[in-house]
Amino acid sequence: MAEPATATEAAAPAVALLKDELDIVIPTIRNLDFLEMWRPFFQPYHLIIVQDGDPTKTIRVPEGFDYELYNRNDINRILGPKASCISFKDSACRCFGYMVSKKKYIYTIDDDCFVAKDPSGKAINALEQHIKNLLSPSTPFFFNTLYDPFREGADFVRGYPFSLREGVSTAVSHGLWLNIPDYDAPTQLVKPLERNTRYVDAVMTIPKGTLFPMCGMNLAFDRQLIGPAMYFGLMGDGQPIGRYDDMWAGWCIKVICDHLGLGVKTGLPYIYHSKASNPFVNLRKEYKGIYWQEEIIPFFQQAVLPKDCTSVQKCYIELAKQVKEKLSKVDPYFDKLADAMVTWIEAWDELNPAGAAVPNGKAK
Fold first, then answer.
1. Phi, psi values for residue 35, rounded to 5°
2. What does the alpha-carbon distance between residue 354 and residue 78 come to, in Å, rounded to a whole number?
């Protein structure tokens, strides 16, 4: 069985790529001891920690990291009444970190994700691979059978149209996980001992018109290209659903990326997912979503955005309108979610005025 890399096995890279252009966003309810093993890779970067749950609890962060930490009181203070769009008691709260960041790129990781090893036993610098994915073009309009043609040792295969070889900007890099798979509760219950030990050395662009189940535990994106659409919805405390936060964001960003001609990659890098969540608790959170997704997914497959939606914000507001019109019949929750989507965009634009370079929302 695969084991995570130790801190001593994770050697710091010679150069920390995009050190001043990327924030690492971590949602948590616990001390962040897991950062010790990531120190060689994460220490050069700025961290945004979003503390969920009890705001009076003190979260310990290992020494030597540059970070800012926001709890629920901070979220309420910064957003005022619009704080209602940020989930409570759910890792969906991480998207507040996306909103207050002022960097071009975001990497988000869960606190139960450790450094993985590749098949040769070498510690994987997940952040470095995500950056390579984001900085190279995507190819959403025609599938390359050698997967990402921009990786070293690969290229476009015979028959690939030359007119499409320039590719498009990559907005999202979706990484994977070894050890505990990201399964839904029913699959967890029937395969409680299953572990993912398959390391597939591949990165590919998800084709235009194809949706995917986005997992938020090992995810990077270009905040300037797609940030306003990276809303993880209304989940957790007071909501009828949980564990669909990242998938909701994934469906929204894919429709918008397809409309705007942006790319989404999936595959490398891997992290080591250390801890299986309780399948019975998960089932309670997911069971409505398991039914609802049979109507939600066709909605996104059929969603069309008008030509005058030329910005992510305009696209997202239009999507919120369509959610209200077409999904409210599934459950009144979607009426509330559509309103929260609009509130999210209003709050995003308040904290990120067009063309303004402003510091993060809270001083250290």
1. -65, -25
2. 18
Place of tokens 């629920």: 72
307 CB contacts (<8 Å, ≥6 apart)? none
Instruction: Tokens for 336, please give them.
Output: 């509330």
Contact status, residue 240 vs residue 189, Cβ threshold 8 Å: no
CB contact burial 323-362 (16+ within 10 A = b; e otherwise)? bbebbeebbebbebbbbbbbbbbebbeebbeeeeeeebbe
Per-residue pLDDT of the chain (364 residues; tens, 9 = 90+): 578 988 778 877 768 999 999 999 999 999 999 999 999 999 999 999 999 999 999 999 999 999 999 999 999 999 999 999 999 999 999 999 999 999 999 999 999 999 999 999 999 999 999 999 999 999 999 999 999 999 999 999 999 999 999 999 999 999 999 999 999 999 999 999 999 999 999 999 999 999 999 999 999 999 999 999 999 999 999 999 999 999 999 999 999 999 999 999 999 999 999 999 999 999 999 999 999 999 999 999 999 999 999 999 999 999 999 999 999 999 999 999 999 999 999 999 999 998 554 444 443 3
Alpha-carbon span 259 to 253, nearest angstrom: 10
DSSP structure class, residue 32:
-
* CA 262 to centroid of chain Cα atoms: 16
Residues 34 and 5 sit within 8 Å (Cβ to Cβ): no
Report yes or no on whether pTM surpasses 0.85.
yes
Place of tokens 């691979």: 129
Task: Name the 3-class secondary structure at 250.
Answer: helix
Q: Confirm if 115 and 123 have CB atoms less than 8 A apart.
A: yes
What radius of gyration, in Å, describes the C-alpha atoms of the chain? 20
Q: Could you give the count of Cα atoms lying within 13 Å of 310 in the half-sphere of its Cβ?
A: 1
Nearest Cα neighbor of 219 from 286, 162, 268 is 268
| Closest among 201, 45, 50, 69 to 127, alpha carbons compared | 45
Alpha carbon distance 318, 118 (integer Å): 42
Indicate the DSSP class of residue 363. -
The length of the chain, given as a count of residues = 364
Structure tokens at 283: 């089932």
| 120 vs 129: CA distance, rounded Å | 17
